[in-house]
Amino acid sequence: AADGGDGARPVSNSSWQPVASGKKGRRPAAAAAAAAAAARAEDYRLLPTLGFKVVNGVEPILPLIRSGHKSIELRRQGARLSDGTVMDRLQPGDRFVGEPLASSLTYKCVMQVTGPVEFYESHGAAWEAHGARAVPRSLGPIRSAAEAQRFYERSFYDGRVLVHEPVLAIPVAMVGWVEK
């Protein structure tokens, strides 16, 4: 079993840049870089969205994906994006926008699926396979699959016990960050 952190380290963020905001006074190189970032991120308004729960006024997951400390997003099997796409069928290269489920938080994270979706019998089993890439240490100390399962139930499912709820492990990377 993984200890929840073997070999976990942030990935390079050199491939992403904020989506252009259209501010005046940009140097030509900066404008070109912003245009390239916008092209890589596509027009985020056309992409399907996925909500991220706010816990105690904070949305903890998207900033961890942005920093590269979290590269595996865990969702229950059968979860859907805003356009109805079943996440089980996501393929490498597919993109979607993560957004906090609170109107006071206005940032969005454009994500790309970086590998095949994997299926596990529980959040704890997914944690055993992916460790800190799925549940970074900054979210709390997780030392076992049972602790990982309880963490997800408590933090994201209002304490409901998720017995026999299959889980998807979706490899993701941020390709754009939008702040309004």
Whole-number average pLDDT?
82
What is the share of helical residues? 10-25%
N-to-C CA distance: 42 Å
Question: Helix and strand string, N-terminal first?
Answer: HEHEEEEHHE
Strand count, sense and closure of the main sheet? Answer: 6 strands, mixed
Q: Count of DSSP helices?
A: 4
Structural class: alpha+beta
Number of strands: 6
What value does the Rg take, in angstroms?
17 Å
The quaternary structure here is single chain
- Portion in strands: 15-25%
Q: Indicate the overall shape.
A: globular
- List low-confidence stretches: 1-26
Fill in the keyword field for this structure.
single chain; 180 residues; alpha+beta; six-stranded mixed beta sheet; 4 helices; 6 strands; globular; disordered N terminus
Task: Tell me what you see in this structure.
Helix content is 23%, strand content 20%. The N and C termini lie far apart (42 Å). The protein is globular, with a radius of gyration of 17 Å. The protein has 180 residues and is an alpha+beta fold. A hairpin with a 7-residue loop joins strand 3 and strand 4. Helix 3 (123-130) crosses helix 4. Mean pLDDT is 82; it is low at 1-26.
Q: SSE layout and pairings?
A:
Layout: H1 28-41, E1 49-52, H2 61-67, E2 72-76, E3 95-100, E4 108-113, E5 118-120, H3 123-130, H4 145-156, E6 167-178
Parallel strand pairs: 1-3
Antiparallel strand pairs: 2-6, 3-4, 4-6, 5-6
Helix pairs in contact: 3-4
Question: Brief description of this entry?
Answer:
With 180 residues, the protein is α+β, with helices and mostly antiparallel strands.
